[in-house]
Amino acid sequence: MNTLNYKHLRYFWMVAKCGSIARACEQLYLTPQAISGQLRELEEMLGVDLFRRAGRGLELTDAGRRILSYAEEIFAIGDELLEVARDQTAKKSLPLAVGIADSVPKSVAHRLIAPALQLPETVRLVCREGRLTGLLADLAVHRLDMVIADRPMPTNLNVRGYSHLLGESDLTVFGTPELLNTLKGAFPMLLQGAPFLMPGDDVAIRPRLEQWFESKRLHPRIVGEFDDSALLKSFGQAGAGLFVAPTAIAAYIGDQYGVRAVGRIDSIAEQLFAITTERRLSHPAIVAITQVGRDEVFGNATEPPPAIRTSDHGQTQAAAATRSRGRPRSTKKAP
To answer: Is the CATH number 3.30.930.10 carried by domain 170-269+301-324?
Structure first.
């Protein structure tokens, strides 16, 4: 393979961002023939097709999408180089590339990662979202510094990695007020025949949730299955069905999606892990993320969500308060 021609790569990057050669021509002030020729040379050098026709436009092939992610990082670093060259007082930013598994609640991921941007060092954050296996492949070749997942490092993958527990929380069932008004009975029996939005097969809590339904002899009506937690909650917000989310963010879920807590499944814990190639964490931003996860994001996971009807075991909140009166509970996990 010849040396990479960065001019050809920039043309490819611009066409990918614009969606067509014609629109890229307007940005680059070049003719369509010139750009098409440069793209062909890049494809011949790389030995892959980067685009395929989609109507009047172009869409990236699988190889094109992977190469685009490299191009974005290359030109981001180039822009930073120019900024430092123009401003000699500018400090080099600390790169942090984080992969977020589809199954991880995006609201939790944001709360975990946001403190990294408050460090004394300037952090340049890159977030990638996708399936865990693909993210771990990128971690193995050091394209990612960390992967946030709802399960520890799988043992069947030939990837060296270490799982650092960020925290855990049991689950709360949510639904819109309109949907709840159509349900009868107390939790958990009100789930019988109720429309339910199920986490997909890639979500770690899925089998445990199915086992819990079986143990309670409950048969909710599954109306949808979702690997992406944000999409699941959007359907829940629209009233398509009940859904579960970590109790630790129950207040946020209620405010953000306009839903109410129905009941709490305290026998199932959803865990989040930071997977890295380091046994001992040294990246300042990753250290900050793990500390925030353990001390703040999951620190109040033992507190009941607002407006909850009953617990997993059928005990009403009022009864629980009566039994536990005078017995304070710590909201922090033991170190």
So the answer is: no
Q: Could you count the other beta carbons within 10 Å of the beta carbon of residue 141? A: 8
Would you say the pTM of this structure is higher than 0.85? no
Strand, coil or helix: 312: coil
For 123, the token pair is: 């952090």
- Residue ranges, CATH 3.40.190.10, the chain: 170-269+301-324
Pair of tokens at residue 166: 């960020």
Q: If you ran DSSP here, which 8-state letter would residue 316 be given?
A: B
Length of the chain as a residue count: 335
Residue 75 and residue 90: Cα distance in Å, rounded? 18
Dump pLDDT digits (tens) for 182-193: 999 999 999 999
- Tokens 């699988």 sit on residue: 62
Burial class of residue 207, CB neighbours in 10 A (0-12, 13-18, 19+): exposed
Alpha carbon distance 199, 187 (integer Å): 20
282: phi then psi, degrees, rounded to nearest 5: -125, -25
